[in-house]
Design a protein that fits this description.
Elements lengths: L2 H15 L4 E5 L9 E5 L4 E11 L17 E8 L5 E7 L2 E10 L15 H20 L1
Antiparallel strand pairs: 1-2, 3-4, 3-6, 5-6
Amino acid sequence: MNPLFAGIPLSTLRAALGNRKRCYDCGGGPSGSCKETVTTCGEGERCGFLERKPQPDPRQTKSTGNPSVTLIHHHPACVAAHHCSRVETEVVGDMTYMTHRDCCVCDLCNSAVASTAAPACIVAAGVTALAWLLSGLWRG
């Protein structure tokens, strides 16, 4: 099969979807638990991770002998591309948070489960390049 003809349906499908990424998202409830689901992010969003850490209120005084407890929420999410690799201060209710957003570039690259396997998009790119090279060798 001619690689040009194989690429036409793929590029048509990609254009129809508008470069939207399939990503893991965490519907973290009040308990901070993560129920990871697959979602299609909106236009201009990437797969990523959201880390939200509460900041101490300087007006509050710490009682001695009572260690402070810091809950850090780290979960997969769709992230607006302009927020990638940024740290921002957010106020939710009466609590101030430092929010850090990291992004990745492949579909489903933001699994909360650690993986040592290569992301699917890297494997797919390698297979595509190999197929392209082999088809050129066969033609002579």
